[in-house]
Structures are given as C-alpha cells and as structure tokens.
Amino acid sequence: MKSKYLNILCLIYAAFIFQWVGCTSSNDSPSPGTAESDVMEQPRIGLIMKSLANEFFSTMQEGAIQHQSANQSYELICNGIKDETDLARQVALVDEMVASGVNAIVIAPADSKALIPALRRAVQAGVVVVNIDNQLDKSIMEQESVSIPFVGPDNRSGAKMVGSYLADQLKPGDQVAILEGKTTAFNGVQRRLGFEDAARDAKLEIVTSQSADWETNKANGLTISILSEYPNLSAIMASNDSMALGAVAAIKSLNRTDQVKVVGFDNITAIQELIRNDIVLATADQHAADLAVFGIEAALQQLGDQNAELLDVQTPVDLITKETLE
Predict the structure, then answer these.
(1) Are 101 and 77 in contact (CB under 8 A)?
(2) CA separation, residue 148 to residues 83, 132, 239, 310, 312 (Å)
C-alpha cells in the first residue's frame, strides 16, 4: 500500500514539473571519462517564448531543443504563455526561472515595456539576459538602469520588403489595410511602419490600420468589418501569418478572394501552402528555428566571458513568395 501511494505521489510531482518547465533538455548522465562535477557545472539556459499556440514559437522551441541535443554543453529549460496577451504569466515565468537558479534567460517578450522590471531583477540577481524576436523599449531600459542586448531581425525592413512585393501587384491609389500586432510590442510597431513605408513609396492608400493582437480569430472578425466598410479594398497586410490566416478566411467567406490580396510575416507552414496555391501573395521568413539558437549562443558567449561586451545582433529576414518556395 505504501508503495502504491509513493508511486502516485511521484506521478503527481512529475506532472507538476513537466507543466512548469514546458521542456527540459540536458545530459542525463556523464559521458565516459567525464567527472560528475563537470556535468553539474553546465550552465542552465531558460528560454521564455510568447504563445506556444503559434507555430512560429513552437518551431523556435524545437530549434532550441535540437541545438541543445547536438551541443550538450548546457541545460535547456523552456516555457511560454498560452496567448500573447498574458503578460502577467510571462512576468511570473521570468521570476520563476530566476528562482530556479538559471544562469541565463533568453526571452521573446510579449510586451516591449511590461517585462523590463522583471528582467532588471533577473540581471541584478546575476542572470545573463538576452532579448530575441521582439525588441525591448530602450527608453524604459534607461529608466530602469538596465542594458539588455537584442538578437533578432530588422522587422521594419522585413515588412517593407513584403509590402513592396505586394505593391508591385497593385497600382497607385489602390486601397490597402494593415492588421497590426500588439501596439505595445516593438516588432508589431516596426512591421506597421515597414508596411507604411512600402505603401507610401508605391502611393497606395492605407484606409485603416488596426490591431488584431497577433490572433487569428480577432483578425478574422476585424477583416470582415474592414471589408464591409471598404468594399473597394485591394489588399490586407498582416503583421504576422496567424492574422493573415484569419484575413484569408474572412475574405473567402465574403467571396472576395479574387479581389483582395493578402501578405503576412513569419513563414509558418500553413501560409506556405496558401502561397503555393496563390491565396496569399508573400510573407517574411525570420528563421524561427534559428532565432532562439542565436540568442542562446549569445548567452553562452557572455557566460563564457563575463568581461565580453554583448552587443545587439541583427539576424536574417527573407522574402518568401511562390517562386522562392518552388
């Protein structure tokens, strides 16, 4: 009977640990000739992402897991939030990672401002912090007296590249709409500005620019409303592919697929199929599988040399069209 209860308690404990860490990857046992103390000294890297319901971030997590498995010089602990509006939970994840004793945190913040106080506390606790994907607000970091390097793409130039490709399929004066990400997210703002740059250069008319908070369902409802208000709309520029999917569904439901073009950003699998089938025109690839790896490698560099100056690193972003997928 005691053995039965002990087994139940072990299962409950294991389930709790799995739910908290999301993924944990490390060497389970020392390799031949390796002292146990050497294994224990491996740095622990915490990866905190945004919504794991978004394929972009699940791909990011998988890339990080594969990197750790191939590298095996550090322990990886990763987690994310259910949706990109749950800022309180992401702040809590930072605090939990610090309390668990990680040596570094690599984070894709859901908000460019709200996460900074928690990250400052992490830095003050001696944790190396690297910002990926969505850049933290520099003015708020100055107010908090903290400096955190950004490893990620130039979202504005990436969005302009996508918007310019769209503009080549349109004519001056055509009406377009922008589906923005979270207005407090730096990458969302930069992508909007990039789309605006492309539209201005091509003399397109932006009739509206509204936030759908990165979410497919919100983008679907918002697109239906926009199409009802602007019957002559020629295109929608979505700041991520999840919102592009919502826009496509709305356009299809109103039988306007041949009239309204769509572009996105992120290059998720579902969008690739729509591009191949001429339903979506283009997207941008910021290499999700590599993005967390770039941040992890920057963190490991800093852990290896505490005196090294860790600077911002610009990572690739590429235009994806039907031609590039063939």
Answers:
(1) no
(2) 24, 10, 25, 9, 9
Query: Residue 180 is which amino acid?
Result: E
pTM of the prediction?
0.85
Indicate the pairing of strand 261-263 with strand 233-238: parallel
Helical axes 55-71 vs 241-253, angle rounded to 10°: 150
Q: What is the pLDDT of residues 22-34, one digit of tens each?
A: 466 544 433 333 3
For Cα atoms 240, 244, 250, give the angle at the middle one, nearest 5 degrees.
150
CATH number 3.40.1190.20 given to 155-285: no
> What are the beta bridge partners of residue 319?
284
Same fold, 41-152+289-316 and 155-285: yes
Among 3.30.40.10, 3.90.226.10, 3.40.50.2300, 1.10.3720.10, what is the CATH number of 41-152+289-316? Answer: 3.40.50.2300
Segment 171-226, tens digit of pLDDT: 999 999 999 999 999 999 999 999 999 999 999 999 999 999 999 999 999 999 99
Cα-based angle 59, 63, 66 (whole degrees, multiple of 5): 135
Helices and strands (H, E) in the chain, number of each type: 13, 13
What's the confidence (pLDDT) of residue 25? 53
Give the number of other Cβ atoms within 10 Å of residue 233's Cβ.
23
Q: Domain segments of the chain: what residues?
A: 41-152+289-316, 155-285
Q: How far apart are CA 195 and CA 181, in angstroms?
A: 12
H-helix segments, 22-51: 36-40
For 41-80, the pLDDT digits (tens) are 899 999 999 988 889 999 999 999 999 999 999 999 999 9
Beta bridge partners of 235: 176, 261
